[in-house]
Every structure is written in structure tokens, then in C-alpha cells.
Specification:
Number of strands: 0
Number of helices: 9
Radius of gyration: 18 Å
Number of domains: 1
């Protein structure tokens, strides 16, 4: 029983750590501080999302692909994954414009939610399978995911809250993203544990890395620059990079 329960618990805790990031909207800021806080939150999240992709997802996934397919085929797979990512982000953006979602911050929050759902599903599968094979490895992976899920919660909750003024909508969107991780773990337990391979997860995570990098550069960065708070932009990036470096130093 513990062999199943503990991997599911690790995946669930890691997933719901996203909700911790959403708690920042409970802090009170003066009206003239809104732009600074939004700029900081966006740039902090950008650093985490791009950093995770470049430092973690891409190298590990690409290495596994190269081991199976060779360098050139793996490079082609990565290029295709990034191209599909660009097309999906552009399509979702256009779809929201057609639905007359004109508030840029709200649209950004929803895009973040959708992308991070796609991120959390394979993460949940990977965490469950790792924990199922080796609890200590699963705990290490779960802790790493917990640390980077917190700023991802900020990336969803802050734009939606400051666009709509509704804490409920911000918490709801973050919660939907959070449950994707334990859902991935549940899918792995019920259907996939005998079929999913490390290579399959690696290809999916290459695609996810493409989504996060595209979203960060195409949507989040222009919005952060729009507020013209250069100091807080730099502080946000720096704090995100410090967190990434701590992850690397601690071996998470």
C-alpha cells in the first residue's frame, strides 16, 4: 500500500505547492506600488520558467533523446517541439482575442495556467514513476518541483487578480493548474506505469520547455517591460536566478 500511497502523496504535495505562490495576492500594496509588484512577479516567474527549461528540462530530455536517436534526429525533435509550442501559444492568444478577452493581464494569467497544466501533467507522471521505483529519488524530485511550482503559482495568480480584482478567480485558476500534477500521478498509477518510458516523458518535457520559453519571451516579457519599472524588473530576474542557482548548488 505504501508503495502506491507515498508516490501519490509526493506528487500531490508537489502539485499543490503551486497554491503557495498564489498567496502573494493576500498582501496589501498601495496603489502606486502595483506596477512594481506586477513587474517583479512577472520577471521573477520568467527567470524561473526560462531557467528551468534551459538548465533542467532541455539538457536532461535532449540527452535521453540523443542516447536513443542520435544528435541530429534529437535536434530535429527539439526544433519541431519548439515550433509546435510557438504555434500553440499564438493560436491560444488569437483564440482569446476572438473571445474578446482584451485585458492583457487576465489573458496572460490564463495562458500561464494552460501552459503550466501541460507542464504539471508530465511532471506528475515523472514524480510518481520516480517515487514508485525509488522513494529517495522521488522525494528529491518532488522537492525540486515544489520549489519551482511556487513562482509558477505567482505567474498565474498575480496577473488574474490584478486584472479582475477577484481573489477567488486567481485562486481557482491556480488550483486548476495545481491538480494537474496529482492527476498526472493518478494517470500513471491507473494506466501508464507499465507503458510510459523515460524517453516519452523526455519528448513531452522538451515540448513543455518550448511552451514555457515561448510564453515567457512572447507574452510575459513584453508585459513586464510595459510597466517601465526597470529596477523591479532586474530585482525579479535576479531573485529568480538566485533561486535557480540554489537549486543547482543543493543538487535539486
Amino acid at each position: 500500500m505504501n508503495k502506491i500511497f507515498i508516490p501519490l502523496l509526493i506528487s500531490t504535495v508537489a502539485g499543490f505547492s503551486t497554491m503557495l505562490g498564489s498567496l502573494v495576492i493576500l498582501f496589501k500594496f498601495k496603489h502606486n506600488q502595483y506596477n512594481k509588484f506586477i513587474t517583479f512577479s512577472l520577471s521573477f516567474s520568467i527567470a524561473i520558467m526560462i531557467g528551468i527549461s534551459i538548465v533542467d528540462l532541455i539538457p536532461e530530455s535532449l540527452f535521453k533523446c540523443i542516447y536513443t536517436y542520435g544528435f541530429m534526429k534529437s535536434l530535429i525533435i527539439m526544433v519541431i517541439a519548439f515550433l509546435i509550442s510557438y504555434i500553440i501559444i499564438s493560436y491560444l492568444n488569437n483564440l482569446m482575442n476572438k473571445k474578446e478577452i482584451k485585458e492583457d493581464l487576465y489573458k496572460l494569467g490564463i495562458l500561464n495556467m494552460l501552459v503550466l497544466i501541460l507542464h504539471n501533467l508530465p511532471e506528475g507522471i515523472a514524480t510518481f514513476l520516480s517515487s514508485y521505483k525509488d522513494i529517495s529519488l522521488g522525494l528529491q524530485l518532488g522537492l525540486a518541483i515544489t520549489l519551482h511550482n511556487i513562482p509558477e503559482g505567482i505567474a498565474i495568480a498575480v496577473p488574474i487578480y490584478y486584472a479582475e480584482g477577484s481573489k477567488l478567480k486567481a485562486f481557482k485558476a491556480t488550483f486548476i493548474s495545481s491538480i494537474a500534477e496529482p492527476l498526472g500521478a493518478l494517470l500513471a498509477f491507473l494506466f501508464l506505469k507499465n507503458y510510459v518510458t523515460d524517453l516519452m516523458i523526455s519528448i513531452v518535457l522538451l515540448f513543455v520547455a518550448g511552451l514555457m520559453i515561448t510564453l515567457s519571451i512572447q507574452e510575459m516579457l513584453p508585459k513586464a517591460l510595459e510597466y517601465k519599472e526597470k529596477k523591479w524588473l532586474i530585482i525579479g530576474f535576479s531573485m529568480g536566478l538566485i533561486l535557480l542557482i540554489l537549486n543547482i548548488i543543493l543538487g535539486l
